[in-house]
Amino acid sequence: MQRNERLESMQEAASAAFAPLRMTTDEFDFDGGIRYATAGGLLVADITGNPGGVWRPQRLITSTDSELYKFSLHLSGSCMLGQDGRHTAVNPGDLVVYDTTRPYGLVFGTPYRTVVVGVPRERLAGQATALRDAVARPTRTDRGLRRVVAGVLNGLAADLDASVTEGGTQLADALLALLGKVFTGDTKLTDPRTSMRERVLAYCEANLGDPDLSVDSIAATHGISVRYLHKLFAGTGTTIAALIRTRRLQRIRDDLADPGQAAVPVAVIAARWGVLDPTHVSRLFRAAYGTSPIGYRRQLLR
C-alpha cells in the first residue's frame, strides 16, 4: 500500500470510529493504525501514528455526525491540542478531553500512541457545562484516582477485543463514573435524574442548526411544560430563547472568521445554524457585535 493510501485508510478508519476528520503526516512513509471495540455505547480505541496532525475543521462538522466527548490518555510522543481557543501541550501520562461537535486540532511532533474513549454527549448531558470548561485542559495521571483511570485504560488497550467486549454495559458505566469524577467531580454521570436544565442546554447545543428549535419543541422533547421550562432558567439572568440566539450567533461568528469558509455566503452560514432570514441575522449580529456579518468577515479576512 502506498504512502497516501495508508494515510487515507487510517483517516477513513478513524473517521468511521468517531466523526469525520482529516489527517496529515510529516514523514514520507506513514506508519500508524487504530484498533477499537465498543461496550455499552462507548468506544475504546488504541491509536498510533507518525508525526503529523489530526484535524476536525468546521467544514467537516455536520448535523449527522456522531456527537462525542473524546477522553484521551496520551501514552507516548509529543502532542499539542487546540480547541475553543485553548492551545496546550499534552504529555505522556496526561488525560485530556475534547469535543467532536466543535473544531479541534492535534499536532504530534514525534511518533505517538494514545488511548481514546468516545462517549456520546447525551450520556454526559448533566455535566455539559463542567466538561466544556474541562476541554483542552490536560490532567496528570501519576497519583490517586487519575492513576487508577490510567491503569484501567492501559489495560483495556492491551486486550481490546476481550476486555472491552466482556465488560459490556458494566464497564461502560464504570468508565463514565471514573471519568466523571476526574473531570467534573461528579460520579453520577449515568443517573437519569441529572439536572434537567443541563440536559436542555445540551439538547439545544446539539440542535442549533434546526430552524424549528423553539421553546415549544424543547419542552415537548423533554416531556415538560413550557411554563416549567421557563422556570428552569429563572434566576439565571437569561432565558432559553436568549441562550439559543447567543449560541447561534457565536457559531455564525466562528464560521465567518474561518478562512476556509471565506467564499461561503453569509446566508448559507446563517441557515446552517438555524437562522433562515438574512435580514434577521444581520440585525441580530449587529446588535450583538456592533457590525454586520459582512463587515465582521472583512475586518478579519482582509
Automatic annotation (TrEMBL):
Protein name: AraC-like DNA-binding protein
SUPFAM superfamilies reported for this sequence: Homeodomain-like
PROSITE patterns: HTH_ARAC_FAMILY_2
GO molecular function: DNA-binding transcription factor activity; sequence-specific DNA binding
Limits of the HTH araC/xylS-type domain: 198-299
UniProt cross-references to SMART domains, sorted A to Z: HTH_ARAC (SM00342)
Segments passing through the bilayer: none
Keyword Transcription regulation: yes
Highest taxon listed in the record's lineage: Bacteria
UniProt keyword terms in alphabetical order: DNA-binding, Transcription, Transcription regulation
InterPro entries membership: AraC-bd_2 (IPR035418), AraC_XylS_family_regulators (IPR050204), Homeodomain-like_sf (IPR009057), HTH_AraC (IPR018060)
Keyword Cell membrane belongs to the record: no
